[in-house]
Amino acid sequence: MRIQHLKLYSGNLDDQRSFYTEVLGLDLIQEDNYSFSVQVGETTLTFEETQFKPYYHFAINIPNNQLEHATDWLRSKVNLLPFEGKDVIDFPNWNAQAVYFYDADHNIVECIARKDLPNQSDDLFDSSSFLEISEMGLPTSDVLSIAGQLETEAGLGIYSGDRSRFCAIGDPQGLFIVVDYDQKDWIPNMDPAIPFPFTVTCEVDGAVVLMDYRDEQLVISG
């Protein structure tokens, strides 16, 4: 699965725009009075203004041989979020390593190097090294139901998890991280996993699929 477009909501639009364009240095590709979009590798990321203050967890794939360079680059721009005293978090079952930071909205952003993807690079690391948004957190009270929808309606497979408290659905290029918010929080700071609305356009086996999540209801079309 490839995430082509991710739309999130922001109660802090001006600061978010400054963070993504000035701090991270991403290209601004659209803006108006109520939203803006930046390019994150192959994914377009849009923030739309809202009156409440949502926050999300999402991950960005980076070249699998550049985690050390990415960590140094990020340290010069943001405060990394350590887990158990370490900035770099190992995920041996996924053959991956990651670092985390907050954006201006307190979204939990992850940069992850996945050894199973052939995406090595010898270029100097900067924001142009971001490859794509590869994970979107989906908190719910019914992991089994949401996992079943993603399997049957979107044609995605289970990558990891037990369909109970946690289930990663998709593949290393694109995953939904479905968690039971009564049983699991977001690492590394254990922020509560709260279900806020978002929209994803993705490509699954050559077909474009639109997913809208709000009020704990997932609507899949395409």
How does this model look, in words?
By secondary structure, the protein is mainly beta. Helix content is 14%, strand content 43%. It has a single domain (2-221), classed as 2,3-Dihydroxybiphenyl 1,2-Dioxygenase, domain 1. The relative contact order is 0.18.
CATH architecture: Roll
* First-last Cα distance: 14 Å
Count the beta strands.
Answer: 15
Spatial strand arrangement across the major sheet: 6-7-8-5-9-12-11-10
The overall average pLDDT, rounded, is: 97
Features:
mainly beta, 2,3-Dihydroxybiphenyl 1,2-Dioxygenase, domain 1, 14% helix
How do the strands and helices of this protein lay out in sequence?
Blueprint: E1 2-10, H1 13-23, E2 28-31, E3 35-40, E4 43-49, E5 57-62, H2 67-75, E6 89-91, E7 96-102, E8 108-114, E9 132-140, H3 143-152, E10 158-161, E11 166-171, E12 174-180, E13 198-204, E14 207-214, E15 217-221
Please give a quick description of this structure.
The protein is mainly β and 222 residues long. Helix content is 14%, strand content 43%.
